[in-house]
Design a protein that fits this description.
Layout: E1 10-15, H1 20-31, E2 36-39, H2 43-53, E3 60-62, H3 70-74, H4 76-82, E4 86-92, H5 107-135, E5 138-143, H6 156-176, E6 181-186, H7 195-199, H8 205-209, H9 218-231, E7 235-236, H10 240-251, H11 254-264
Parallel strand pairs: 1-2, 1-4, 2-3, 4-5, 5-6, 6-7
Helix pairs in contact: 1-9, 5-6
Length: 271
């Protein structure tokens, strides 16, 4: 199953497109001739990206949106329709993490993260998929993490959110079989983006927490993600080391895995 062909009335909607993996996925899609609709809270980075990747044949459109705001999300597809476009590819990339023990967590911060990392994905899939199925074409790429395959003490809510995204996407793929629409879950390992800064990691802590062999660049992740989406893959894990790590996490005894992860996580090392 390949991605739908570019057309003047079709677009790929990419959330979290202002930086990192999201912006690089938008670049990959634009390079294939697709119009892209760029979505994030910050408008200026989106405009800079649109100017970089848009063309007369395949424009890039900016729709600054706070995806934690349910009413803003509800109006997003209407704004796309006002551009004369339908969404043939949905990339749910927006997300972030809180950091630290649950016992020390701020409830509002935790719920805000779940709103973006979980509820927004459900919301946009529920709104976009009926049109895709009716047209008999489309692709959904939901971005999770290798954290989806394991517990993550120190980032419990984030790990659980990504486990949800993986399970949800696999279930979608089962439901969509035979419709002409595919669902793929991207599960990157560590990537150098602004993720660690927003989560609250100390300088160099995030870089040193995982072996260098597991690190993949944002550009490599984006290229692999679009390739696997085009193939209709169920799960895409960039990097051989990360694929091996994900497999190990699935079979390792939970107590052993928890002990390893507790020792590795920067937020828990002092304990």
């Amino acid at each position: 199953m390949s991605l739908p062909s570019p057309a003047p009335d079709r677009a790929c909607l990419v959330t979290g497109a202002s930086s990192g993996i999201g912006s690089d996925i938008a670049r990959e899609l634009a390079a294939r001739g697709h119009q892209v609709v760029l979505v994030a809270r910050s408008e200026e980075p989106l405009r800079e990206l649109a100017a970089e990747i848009g063309s007369d044949a395949a424009p890039a459109h900016v729709l600054a949106t706070d995806l934690s705001d349910r009413s803003a999300r509800a109006g997003l597809l209407g704004r796309v329709a006002e551009l004369g476009l339908t969404v043939d590819v949905l990339v749910n990339n927006a997300g972030y993490s809180t950091l630290g023990k649950v016992v020390d967590a701020d409830p509002d911060d935790e719920m805000a993260m779940v709103e973006v990392d979980v509820v927004a994905i459900q919301d946009l899939c529920t709104r976009v998929l009926p049109g895709m199925v009716e047209r008999g074409r489309g692709g959904v790429l939901n971005v999770a993490s290798t954290a989806a395959f394991q517990p993550l003490p120190g980032q419990a809510s984030y790990g659980a959110a990504k486990s949800f995204v993986l399970s949800y996407t696999l279930s979608l793929a089962g439901e969509l079989a035979g419709t002409g629409v595919t669902a793929t879950c991207l599960c990157p390992g560590p990537v150098k983006t602004g993720f660690a800064d927003r989560a609250g990691f100390e300088p160099n802590d995030f870089d040193s927490a995982l072996p260098k062999v597991m690190w993949v660049t944002s550009e490599q992740v984006a290229r692999y993600a679009v390739q696997e989406l085009d193939r209709g893959s169920l799960v895409a894990i960039p990097g051989l080391a990360n694929r091996v790590g994900a497999r190990f996490s699935r079979v390792a005894p939970h107590r052993l895995l928890l002990e390893i992860l507790k020792r590795m996580h920067p937020a828990l090392r002092e304990h």
